[in-house]
Amino acid sequence: MGKVIVVTSGKGGVGKTTSSAALGAALAQNGEKVVVVDFDVGLRNLDLVMGAERRVVYDLVNVIQGEAKLTQALIRDKRVETLYLLPASQTRDKDNLTPEGVEKVIAALKSAFDWVICDSPAGIERGATLAMRHADVAIVVTNPEVSSVRDSDRIIGLLDSKTLKAENGERIEKHLLLTRYDANRAERGDMLKVDDVLEILSIPLLGIIPESMDVLRASNVGAPVTLADGRSAPALAYFEATRRLKGEDLPVTIPGEKRSFLGKIFGRKAA
Amino acid sequence: MTDVLTQPRPIRLKGRSFLALALTPELPVADWLVRLDDLAARSAGFFLRRPVVLDIDGLDIDRQELRELVEQLSSRNVRVMGIEGARTSQLGPDMPPAMTDGRPAADFEAPAESQKTEKETVDPVEAEAPAAPLQQPVTAAPSLIVSRTVRSGQSIFFPEGDVTIVGSVGSGAEVVAGGSIHVYGALRGRAMAGSTGNAEARIFCRKLEAELIAIDGFYKTAEDMEPELRGKAGQIWLEGETIKAAILG
Questions:
Q1: Mutate which of A151, A152, A153, A155 to test chain B, going by most B C-beta atoms within 10 A?
Q2: Which residues of chain B have pLDDT under 70?
Q3: Do B192 and B177 contact (CB within 8 A), yes or no?
Q4: In what order do the strands lie in the sheet with B143-146?
Q5: Maximal C-alpha separation, chain B
Q6: What is the dihedral of CA A60, A62, A68, A71, to 10 degrees?
Q7: Nearest-CA distance B154 → chain A (Å)
Q8: How big is the CA angle at A128 (ends A119 and A169), to the nearest 5 degrees?
């Protein structure tokens, strides 16, 4: 039985889809069977980020409504053969997702894959609650700024009450993925500090992904950042996050701390 | 006096809960009234001056029958202050208002036969006063302990007494308590203590970063709070009509 992960945030534009694709690809590169499911029905993006937009025939809604078989809708990645995508529908809306339909699809995926990664839409409505409903693990994607942190807090509350695990009295495993971390802005103090975010949300930190042009570049060529350039800073951060997700105990380094340390030395030399 | 009149003061809207006696009529109503008369006969004035709520949830009677029942009760000096569990079709503008969200409380002690006869022999006047006054069982003030963080968008509502939170209250979360509020963590959301009219209630927290605090209907927003208290452990109480705050030890 595979593990079901929901990548969620409440707020839009914080990096859920980028992270879903990057983590999915990183897990698959280790030979594990991974499927990334796009729950953002009506506003699908994951197919673009994964470079599969021209290969979509059937989608999640087709499968739920019985118009296509699951195997027909799954798209195998051309670069990593254990990576699959289940795209969302762009023409339908979220009302087409039924709790029973989602349950069936997730159960089928769980038995066929090691990891089922659900890319949640923004918001706290139907799409988001259905995406988190069957999750074993939640990755809460947050930017170091107040509105994102508050929305994440709200999502954590929902994870603790609206998921199947929570309703059965179990605790859903939650991890914080801090994305779009800008070392320069952190240095200037116009961004929330890592410690402040951790104190407010009080869930374990899975990783810190630096703000980087590499992310934009990767999505423009339709590749998860961990496939586009495996040695870029965000890709390395995602690889580390993947190892932590699998239970490894790795210390988290705050991006830019090393550089600011060097910066101080250079600063002194220049003076 | 003129001073008071010229100062625009907001009207305070406060909630308050009272203990009412809930009567649950049964069908046929005539038989139930006989039993009620029997109970009332054992202690004259049992229903006198006592607020009574009629619980007709699941009772199959129409508006006219309900109106007659209320009249029957009023002829027995039972004054119905409200009706619980009624469908809108059963109520009319001339009838007591609908009541919702009733919470069970301790049972009223029904007057017992033997007590009444004893008392009558000792002092007949006693029977005129409400016999067997409401027994107040010795119970501690109720309190609610929440041993987790209250997240944004969540709301803890406990008008019965104190609320203790072992964790933080997130920005956009709220805690409403009839008594005091204790937060063993950061208070970043809203805390409203003494919401049922308890001016003695207080708010305590490990780290004061609240968006809004209120005691007994008087409130203060983050903007009006003393900046030097921010981030500190603190307590908040009411002095007259002013909210006071101080750093805790």
A1: A153
A2: 1-10, 13-17, 43-45, 48-49, 103-139
A3: yes
A4: B143-146, B162-165, B181-187, B203-208, B234-239, B242-247
A5: 69
A6: -10
A7: 7
A8: 105
Cα gap A109→A21, rounded to integer Å? 17
Tell me, what's the pLDDT at B118? 42
Residue B231 near residue B210, CB atoms below 8 Å: no
Strand partners, A35: A84, A116
Chain B contact probe: residue of A150, A158, A160 with most B CBs at under 10 A: A150
Is A131:A39 a contact under the CB 8 Å cutoff? Answer: yes
Q: What angle do CA B82, B84, B90 make, to 5 degrees?
A: 90
Residue A142 to residue B238: CA distance in whole angstroms: 38
Long-range CB contact pairs, B28-33, < 8 A, 24+:
B29/B61, B29/B65, B29/B69, B29/B72, B33/B72, B33/B76
Query: ipTM of this predicted complex?
Result: 0.74
Angle between helices A146-162 and A126-133 (to 10 degrees): 60
Residue with structure tokens 């939170």? B165
Ranges in chain A, pLDDT < 50: 260-271
